[in-house]
C-alpha cells in the first residue's frame, strides 16, 4: 500500500490586521451590522443565504463566512462545515444568521431545529452559539436570543 498519495492536513490562520483593529461584537446591533456586510444585499429579498461569524473569548471577530446559499424559501446548511471551521479557527463563540426573502421574521420549525442541533454540536467542543439572527428585507431582523430560543 502506497501512503504517499494521501493528502496532508495543514491548519493555519493569518490575520490581515491586528486583533485591536478587528470588530468586537457587543450587542445584537453590532452583529447585525456585520451580517449586513456578509449577506449579499442585492439578493436579500430573493434568495436565502446563511452566514457565520466566528469569535474569540472577547467576542472579537476572528473570521466570517458566507457559507450557504439556497432557493427562495430554504437553503441546505451542513453543520460539519460550520463546526469544522469553528474548530480550525479555535473560536470560542459563533453567531449564525440567514435571511428570509419573504420578509416573515418568524423562525420556522426548521430554523429552530437547526439551531438546537448546531448548539449541541458546538457545545461538544466548548463553543457557544451566541445567537441565530434572521434578516429580512428593509433592515428588519429577529434574534433567537431575544425570543429565548437559545
TrEMBL record:
Residues 25-150 form the MPN domain. Keywords: Hydrolase, Metal-binding, Metalloprotease, Protease, Zinc. The keyword Hydrolase applies. This is JAB domain-containing protein. Gene3D superfamilies: Cytidine Deaminase, domain 2. The keyword Hydrolase applies. The lineage of its organism: Bacteria, Pseudomonadati, Bacteroidota, Cytophagia, Cytophagales. It comes from Algoriphagus pacificus. It comes from the Bacteria. It holds the Pfam family RadC.
